[in-house]
Fold this protein.
Amino acid sequence: MIIAFDLETTGLDRYNDEIIEIALVKFDEKTYKILDTFSSLVNPGVPIPELISNITNIFDSDVEGAPVLDELKKDILAFIGNTPLLGHNVFFDRDFFIEKGINVRENIVLDTFFLANMLCFHEKSLNLEMLCRSFNVPFSGAHRALNDVMATIRLFEKLTGKFKKLSVTKKKILKYIFELSEDQNIDYRIDYLLSEDVESIIFESFEKQILKKVGKLIEIKDLIVDKKLKIKGLESIYENLGTVEKRENQLEMTKIVFETMKKGNKSVIEAPTGLGKSFAYLIPSILHSVKTGEKVFISTKTKTLQDQLFYKDLSFLEDNIGFDFHHTKLKGRRNYMSLKGFFDEIVLDKIDYYKVNFLSKIALWVFETTYGELDELNYFGAEFGYLRNINADSALLLTDKNIYRDYEFLFKARQRVETSNIVVINHSLLFSDLKSENSIFGKIKNLVIDEAHSIEDSITESLKTRINEKNITEIFNFIENTLDKKNIKKIEFLNGKEQILGHIALIMDYAMSYIDGKVSKEQKYKNILIKKDFYPEADFVSLKSKIELSFLDIIDFLACTSEYDFTKEITSLQSYLNILKILLNKDSEDEYIKIANYHDNTGVSLDCTLLNPGNYLMNNLWGNLRSVILTSATLKISDSFDYFIQLLSLEKFQFYSFESDFDYNKQATLFIPNNLGSIKNNSKEVVHFLGLFYSLVRGKTLTLLTSFSIIRKIYTALNLQLKHDDINLYAQSIGGSKTKLMSFFMESPENSILLGTDSFWEGVDIPGEKLKYLVIHKFPFSVPSDPIFQARSVFFKDPFKDYSVPKAIIKLKQGFGRLIRSKNDKGIVILIDDRIYSTNWGKVFLEAFPKDINIKYSDSTHFLNAIERNISK
């Protein structure tokens, strides 16, 4: 017998929040038949937050006459006894119970979340509702305890069925990992899920099965070179493709890219949505590579586009272009699983519950993956910490010292690069690998950068480094535990560790004082630019010298330790030392941006990144390339490339741009309401207008916003009203991950409204009839207090006009691009920001929209009436 249970609470903090509903259901563990139930609303003794009522549909009036928890405790404990407990993310509910005085600490627990995490790693979301949909489990009344419990039982039945259908080999693999733990919950899982005829195996058998699946060899192909290849002009290639629509602009861009590579030039091309720019640079890149033997690297910002190029576009061209070529993809080292790291984790002493689940997921995934890219999976909680031990970041991974080298996914990926004409990479790898050892960039002579509008942000993030006490303590703890297990004397290490942690604590305390002196203490998250006033009169010269000596002593100690390979830890410590040397040098601000951060959950941390991306690119990338093409749909501001040129040092590039083939006069209307007041203080009017608008159109609407606070305000005010009318309101940060929200929206767009901020402004593709309305709340300006924005503003004569406005316009153009994706799309844009007509700079934003778009200024009532008439036709 098992008891499934679920709680609804006033929040996520078990220490300060309260239970408002409890549901317990006993069922037979073999037949899954329901045996008994216990459910009750609970009076929390405090008001239920409005947002929680929106999510659970439980209001203060519902719990007013309900029993308080103390009145239920005896019955709850009697119902549960020592029966195993089942839940979805069960430890949240169990720990809430324990904190509130219902002691179920000794009860065995089973968790559908962890089972799904292990077995269903291809799922985009492990949310209960999403999993139920995937397994065709009936699900209604989400976030009501009893409904969630019933769904959890049915999902558990499906998951156990899936587990029992695993091959004998996979069951043996899992049993080996399960038996590494002494956790009673894992022991119960072995008894419940694995039949007695699944034998236990030793490490050598476990290792053999994994390596057999991964395989040592890959098919080695020669780089395809045909200098005598003849084609009847670039037009003939498009004719061979057959199904690809003929576009004059696409052909013209193809010629520009081909000539750029042929002559060894550098070009910037603004190519609007619908031009077909992917084929316009892929086809000439393939042709150039095959005719010359020179590889061409293609870099994208988003994994979505990288996968589209690799799996879809290049595969299509491979089958249809009319001549042979090879292509592959490559990501950063940390994106690949390391077999050595994985086996090192397996042979450790007893491991805990969470790591058992993580390693089990990885083991099953190894049987499925082709490329071993860790971003094929989703991760949760402690798993992010485990990743550093199984990724391919070790400097020794590709050397003869690694007995698994020839099996390693990174090793095989690098081999494929050697024999490929086209290599698809991402911006993160491109920029972070420029100065690293064993860089691939000696091989890059011809480069295409797509999504080039994002270069500044990508290079900033790729080269950003962070240090805090937690990071260094975790590394030291790992080193100390390893030294203990290997019986290595550690006095020298402990002395150095104590000195470094003391110095780091001093720096972080000083940084906290600096933050408090600049920012209100009430803010949950604070980040400020470190300026010269950060440094005390005595400077940090003496402290910097002491820290450097302590770090170097530990690094030398680890390097001389033969019993264990500490290469990865040495690399991390060296990186932290380099960060500290920059942070503690007051004169480094000419080259670096230094930032002090504080968050209630994580404490103080210090960041640094480069100050001038243009100089960095000019010195480390542009001059080292034979040819380079930068392309995007959004590069020009007011019909000029000047902003992009200054930002990225593109003075020696040639520039091209194409007009859109779309007929925006027929395809799109821009509505600007003129009666909602100033965007600075009109949130009440905006929410009222959106409520009326959403009720009219019912769905097919994406709303782009600039902060989570306005998202919460809209959601809290409108969700119940819309839900009553059978309209789904999906809100970022409230309804789950971006992937989950997009999935829900795409399933029923006709009655779905989507609210999103930053990541929804670009890289979101909602095709055709599924998106008809785009609401833009505010111009997407950078926050003026953002340290990176502050630091780079010094390069501009007028930071607002020359930096802030162009950045916002680029993002606005990206946002508008979500609506009209093809010649057949039609839609309406509602721009609420009154500054487009009330300021002297608003005209520049208006010019960011297509020249032939219909623009209508009117009061909101007139607009809503027009929408209603249009819908009723």
User: Anything to note?
Assistant: The mean pLDDT is 91. The longest helix spans residues 491-516.
